Automatic annotation (TrEMBL):
Record localization: Cell inner membrane; Membrane
Lineage: Bacteria, Pseudomonadati, Pseudomonadota, Alphaproteobacteria, Acetobacterales
Major localization listed first in the record, in broad terms: membrane
Name under which the protein is recorded: ABC transporter permease
Cited function: Could be part of an ABC transporter complex.
Membrane-protein topology: Multi-pass membrane protein
């Protein structure tokens, strides 16, 4: 009996801790968004974060998208050839890239790169008392550090996903024409005829949400880090892990909203 009670008590503590953390993150996000609606705004901090996300993340997102499209075309051919459905390869590639793989893989790559960078930068400022120094200088840390990053993440990720969609489809086209024997015009026509505007729109909505989540998790864990260098390292790890989990969970929720029958 005691074993069962101890288990239930541990489970209850875990659930309450999860709810408390979710509430803290929600309040942090609400406060950060509220500062976007009130002056002053710091365009320099916004542009810095925007360039960091949209430009410096471009190589890793581009490589990921190209090779994903190439692998997807190869795997689709090996499966569809068993049923004589090779002509559907272009359709599968463009549908998978625009709806799912483009935004999800770009989000995960940016989470590993930008989420960790935001957490490390803000965490270092926190443990070295630079955040408190901003308050002393009459500068709101949420308005200066968090709000510009939230806006930059939300606006930059869709641009990255547009590039990822184009390069992912290009990767499938390269394999389809160079290795699988498709005509270039035939492959491109099949891609354009099958692709629907809602496929691209849903991917861009996911991208905006994922960009916000990455910026939010990186800022939240960095802002609340404690304990010197060890605390900054823990905050960086937590930012990447929580961003990745939320991206995968929200991917299902958004897909359900757009395409559930």
């Amino acid at each position: 009996m005691n074993v069962i009670l101890n288990f239930l008590a541990s489970l209850g503590r875990a659930v309450l801790g999860l709810c408390r953390r979710a509430g803290a993150i929600a309040l942090f996000a609400a406060e950060g968004l509220s500062h976007l609606l009130r002056p002053p705004f710091y365009p320099r901090m916004f542009l810095r974060a925007f360039v960091e996300i949209a430009y410096f993340s471009l190589p890793v997102v581009s490589l990921t998208a190209v090779f994903t499209g190439m692998v997807l075309a190869l795997q689709s051919y090996s499966g569809f050839s068993r049923f004589g459905a090779e002509s559907a390869i272009a359709n599968v590639v463009v549908l998978s890239i625009t709806r799912e793989l483009g935004p999800v893989l770009a989000g995960l790559m940016v989470a590993g790169r930008i989420g960790a960078a935001f957490a490390a930068e803000i965490g270092t400022m926190r443990v070295t008392d630079q955040v408190d120094a901003l308050t002393t200088l009459s500068t709101n840390p949420m308005k200066y550090l968090v709000a510009p990053r939230l806006l930059a993440g939300t606006l930059a990720m869709p641009l990255l996903v547009v590039v990822a969609d184009v390069l992912g489809v290009m990767g499938g086209w390269i394999i389809g024409t160079a290795k699988l024997g498709f005509g270039s015009a035939t492959y491109l026509n099949a891609t354009l005829n099958f692709m629907q505007p809602m496929d691209v729109i849903s991917g861009l909505v996911k991208a905006a949400v994922f960009g916000f989540i990455v910026a939010l998790m990186g800022s939240y864990h960095g802002y609340n880090s404690r304990g010197g260098a060890q605390g900054v390292g823990a905050a960086t790890t937590a930012a990447v892990v929580s961003s990745s989990i939320l991206i995968l969970a929200l991917d299902y929720i958004i897909t359900e909203m757009f395409f559930a029958q």
